[in-house]
Amino acid sequence: MTKKQAYTIRVAFIVALGGFLMGFDASVISGVVNFIVTDFDLTEVELGWAVSSLTLTSTLAMMTAGPLSDKYGRKALLQIAAVLYAISAVASALAPNFTILVIARMLGGFGVGASLILAPMYIAEIAPPQMRGRMVSFNQLNIVIGLSTAFFSNYMVLKLGQSEAPWAVALQFDTYNWRWMLGLETLPAIVYFLGMFLVPRSPRWQVMKGMEEQAKVTFHKVVSPEETEQQIKDIKKSLQSDNGEKAQFKDLFKPAMKLVLTIGVVVAVLQQIVGINAVFFYSPMIFEQTGIGTDASFVQAIIVGLTNLVFTILAILFIDKLGRKPLLTFGMAGMALAMFLLAYGFNTATYTLTETSVQNIENLDVTALQPTLGQTFESDLQFKSAIQDALGESEAKKLQSQLISASISMNPYLILIGIIGFVASFAISIGPVMWVLFSELFPLKLKGIAISFAGLINSGVSFLVQLIFPVELATLGSSLTFLLYGLFALAGFIFVIIVIPETKGKSLEELEEVLVK
User: Fold this and answer.
1) Is the four-CA dihedral 453, 457, 458, 460 of positive or negative sign?
2) φ and ψ at 500, to 5 degrees?
3) What are the backbone dihedrals phi and psi of residue 376, each rounded to the nearest 5 degrees, phi first?
4) DSSP conformational letter for 352
5) Which three-class secondary structure string do you get for 446-479?
């Protein structure tokens, strides 16, 4: 490894820590949901808001983060994002009610929106073409490390709450378990803020602002002097071809942008509509639907996070060797098959409560439940409706996990295999590849606006998926919900094969010349 390569990797890794915070902030809520449902007595819609509120404001942030970064710089906006992450973590942990919790999560969403699009943009603008795919994928790697860390820290807080160690008791991990889960994010947010002082400004942004000499200094650290001159020449040529006109949103819809905009929008929708954030943000809840219990559901969520991490690393290793399109093709097919397996697994489940199976459930009014004992229910919808009629909605929510464990007959490993297969397929394909494509497809002048627009759509779809997932489970049932996600993945597979071009190994300026007619 050369000195220049080592420098590029170090800078990319620091900037991509924004992805770690995004992943942690987004998925830490997965361990919180069951606790806040009972603490704040939430409905399905309120639970959806608690989870998706962060994504709503991240969607709004994406409308402005790109243009603001064009004005003030990628680095400055990323440091502001780090501050927002820290404030949100503290406020969420101390939230006295549902409303304050949602507001605190929404504040963090502004940091998520900024870091989600600016980190890969910055990395693409500083990395040499032969390293760009892997370097931009660092951001997705850090997102999944953040996801995995959140799953693990949630489980550790849960176990500390059950510990009798004096220090754990003193810190009240049992009473304030979900508050500790949310508050731990403050530490990496501070690290990210300080780390950003160690990276330079984007050299392409410097050229855009007329700071050519500063750009040369930055480029010299990552490429040879000859390549530096060529890179700056290509950037200036690209900017001059726009006749000095300031980029406007309406420019995205010019005929020349039709192909890249279509690809960007469809890929942005596909990455979320297949249900990835429903799996990540509600994974303990999903696993509890199989009857394995709370502790085991947290453990399986950790397995999901580690799977995501391993296959994201594989994507980074192969993205510049195999190319973007082969990974997308394999991944979309795998996600479709995995979701169909989940739909089949939940469709085969039956639910039967007996006197024996419920006798160890604490605080259960067995007399009220008597009409349901001995009955076999063919779907989760029928079963949940029956126990709500017998116990009342509030009491049924509190005991739902234990009652499912006591009644269900299915193969929970089928569900685990399906979710692991789905996450693995996502992590090696559209998870990291989407951001690489975003950083490559759009011309320099429109890059900030275009990535903001595509990111806005991506985040908007993510918000809707998170918001309605609890409602889908309550109205459609687990089997039909996952079947729908599988059909979306199948449609994505067809689109990838027919429309998406290969972009590996080409400079950003070469891609602009080929794709933007």
Assistant:
1) positive
2) -75, 130
3) -110, 125
4) E
5) HHHHHHHHHHHHHHHHHHHHHHHHHHHHHHCCHH
Residues 108 and 91: their CA atoms lie apart, in Å, by 10
List the structure tokens of 394: 């509030």
Alpha-carbon span 323 to 184, nearest angstrom: 37
Cα–Cα distance for residue pair 225/207, rounded to 1 Å: 16
Tokens at 389, concatenated: 């009629």
- pLDDT digit string (tens) for the chain, length 517 residues: 788 788 888 888 898 888 888 888 877 888 888 788 888 888 888 888 888 888 888 878 877 887 888 888 888 899 999 999 999 999 999 999 999 999 999 999 899 888 877 888 888 888 877 777 778 777 777 887 888 888 888 888 888 888 888 888 888 888 888 899 999 999 999 999 999 998 888 888 788 787 878 888 888 787 777 777 777 777 777 666 655 556 677 777 877 778 888 888 999 999 999 998 888 777 777 776 676 656 667 777 788 888 888 898 888 788 878 888 899 999 999 999 999 999 999 898 888 888 888 877 877 888 888 888 888 888 888 888 888 888 887 788 777 778 888 888 888 888 889 989 999 999 899 988 887 887 777 776 777 778 778 877 887 888 888 888 888 888 888 899 999 999 999 999 999 998 887 776 666 556 666 566 6
Cα separation, 270 vs 492, in Å, equals 6
Hey, how many other C-beta atoms are within 10 angstroms of the C-beta on 321?
Answer: 10
CA distance 402 to 399: 5
Residue 394 has a CB neighbour count (10 Å cut-off) of 10
Residue 165, amino acid: A
Supply 271's token pair.
């990455």
Domain map (residue ranges) of the chain: 3-199+263-347+413-515, 352-409
Identity of the residue numbered 164: E
Pick the CATH number of 3-199+263-347+413-515 from 3.30.70.990, 1.20.1250.20, 1.10.340.30, 3.40.50.1000: 1.20.1250.20
Q: How far apart are the first and last CA of the chain?
A: 38
What sections of 392-443 are H helices per DSSP?
A: 393-407, 412-427, 430-441
**CA 370 – CA 358 distance, rounded (Å):** 11
**Whether the Cβ atoms of residue 508 and residue 444 lie closer than 8 Å to each other:** yes
What is the separation of C-alpha 431 from the centre of its chain, rounded to a whole number of angstroms?
8
Dihedrals phi, psi of 351, to nearest 5 degrees: -135, 120
DSSP 8-state symbol, 443: -
How far, in Å, CA of 322 to CA of 380, rounded? 42
* Helix (H/G/I), strand (E/B), else coil: 350: strand
Whole-number Å distance between alpha carbons of 89 and 98? 15
Phi then psi dihedrals of residue 246, to 5 deg = -75, 135
